[in-house]
Design goal:
Layout lengths: L3 E5 L2 E5 L17 E7 L2 E6 L4 E6 L12 E4 L9 H7 L3 E7 L9 E6 L8 E9 L2 E10 L1 H10 L5 E7 L2 E6 L8 E7 H8 L11 E5 L3 E2 L2 E10 L5 E8 L10 E9 L5 E7 L5 E9 L2 E8 L9 E8 L5
Parallel strand pairs: 1-19
Antiparallel strand pairs: 2-22, 3-4, 4-5, 5-6, 7-8, 8-9, 9-10, 11-12, 12-13, 13-14, 15-16, 16-17, 17-18, 18-19, 20-21, 21-22
């Protein structure tokens, strides 16, 4: 079981409002933020029930709410306005990560990944960067079916919720649930993933290794991974929630949420709960002096409620 010795109070610095004139249905906010990248002066956010990327001014350092974000289309078409058909039709972008340089994207790229929780949710979108915080306009659609097929043999209820590139590997995070509490970190050689994402080879590389993680439970509800980011020396930070649901599609009550660090040797260093149990699904981490500044976005599972932008400042010494 992970060592839990504290809890943190996240500061809400604002809600994720968007320009309603840019939204096909005139919506004024994101309500299901699920992935976050801080790049240059910009916050990039994906929501699991939208076909657009949200682009916001990074006001985290100032501690003020960002203004309404702009929308960048990821996929063509539109989603139904009604909740049930929208849930069935959505591509379920649960992950957003920044990639290093790859063929066709010398300044790197953003990658939004579908969760793979159904066959309809096996699409990724690659967006080239011109420089930190600015998109180049290059967009590519990538089918994830060949990447995810071997994973389904290990995890019948696959649910990819986080990704990053570090130490020469692409890391994917699988989120467990009440029926199968196993969360996992899956690694691939970046040297094989990069040309596949760029469309230069048909087959993705094979899985290099899979690390299954036990994060414990709260009131009988398993904590499961919702995102992860690299730190230093092979360590990585994760967000996790205890959501009372038995599969990767249905929503449930969020009993608890937490942040934690996995050491380079694969062991959970420590875990800290977040007061108020916000359903954090996307995180970004920057080092400031001897602290980690953890920026988070939430998915309230209610289209009438705006996603929050949260911040925690955590001493690096806490995790050692």
């Amino acid at each position: 079981m992970p060592l839990v010795s504290s809890s943190f109070h996240p500061q809400c610095i604002g809600l994720l409002h968007i320009d309603p004139a840019q939204h096909p249905q005139g919506r004024q906010h994101f309500s299901a933020a699920s992935g976050l990248v801080r790049s240059g002066p910009t916050l990039f956010v994906v929501a699991d029930d939208e076909l657009h990327l949200g682009v916001f001014e990074d006001t985290v350092a100032a501690g003020t709410a960002p203004g309404p974000g702009d929308l960048v289309r990821l996929l063509e078409g539109d989603l139904p306005a009604e909740a049930a058909p929208r849930k069935k039709a959505k591509p379920d972008f649960e992950t957003l990560t920044r990639l290093p340089a790859l063929p066709g994207c010398p300044a790197g790229a953003l990658l939004a990944l579908g969760s793979g929780s159904t066959a309809h949710r096996e699409t990724a979108v690659l967006l080239g960067l011109a420089k930190p915080g600015r998109l180049s306009g290059r967009t590519a659609i990538v089918s994830l079916s060949r990447l995810y097929a071997p994973l389904r043999k290990r995890f019948a209820d696959l649910n990819i919720e986080g990704a990053w590139v570090a130490d020469g590997h692409l890391h994917l995070l699988h989120r467990g649930n009440q029926s199968d509490a196993r969360s996992a970190c899956i690694r691939y050689d970046w040297s094989g993933i990069a040309p596949w994402l760029a469309g230069l080879q048909a087959q993705p590389p094979v899985i290099k290794n899979v690390q299954v993680l036990n994060l414990g439970s709260v009131d009988g509800v398993a904590l499961s991974l919702t995102d992860g980011v690299p730190l230093e020396c092979g360590d990585w930070m994760f967000s996790a929630v205890a959501e009372d649901t038995g599969d990767s599609v249905a929503d449930g009550a969020c009993v608890a949420s937490a942040l934690g660090v996995i050491a380079a040797d694969g062991k959970v260093r420590r875990l800290a709960y977040l007061e108020g149990a916000p359903k954090v699904e996307g995180i970004a981490v920057q080092r400031e002096g001897t602290d980690w500044v953890v920026t988070m976005v939430t998915d309230p599972d209610d289209r009438a409620v705006a996603s929050q932008l949260l911040v925690c400042r955590i001493p690096m010494a806490y995790w050692t």
